[in-house]
Specification:
Layout lengths: L1 H51 L14 E8 L4 E9 L5 E12 L21 E4 L2 E8 L10 E5 L1 H4 L6 E12 L3 H8 L4 E2 L5 E2 L4
Antiparallel strand pairs: 1-2, 2-6, 3-5, 3-7, 4-5, 8-9
Amino acid sequence: MYRGRYEGKHRKAAAPAHGKALRTGRLTTMVIATVLLLALAIGGTLAWLSTKDAPIQNKFLPTKVTCEVMETFNGSTGVKSNVNVKNTGTIDAFIRVKLVTYRTNDQGQHIGGTASLPTFTLGTGWVKYGDYYYYTKPVAPNQKPETNLTDSMTLIGSYMDTDGGKQAVDVMAEAIQSVPEDAVKAAWGAGFSIGADGSLNVPNV
């Protein structure tokens, strides 16, 4: 009897420990679940931010200075007309032109020597300095000077020399960015400068 009562008391004493273990287990489970939910919430927020945040890309397009001679030539009469130069670059530029003369045969081949430069009327805004003709205003990209270098140029003697050679004149054009002034000086000479209105000041002109 005594032993039976002892075991009964022992079993009743163990019951509270079992209940406490259950409560502890539930609490642990709740804590783990909360941590997981917080982790998922934080992870989702970070994922959303990473998909919205894009790197900034700075694109720099290099400038270029190029030009192209524009003219009309009548091979039958030897007349050059509407002689001008187009700014084919991506920045405002000053333009200058050199006229190179030579002689050719009927097949267009060089036969040596030089030909005289025909007389012509120089367009407004163009000035001559040395062997070049300068347009004194900056020319915008894809534009040409407002006036032609010349409207018309007729090669001498119906463009035939006495020995049968044909006179030829090539228009050689150059362009330089209109700013800064140092770029113009470095390319064309220290005597050049740029006026307050942005125009080209040619030495001795």
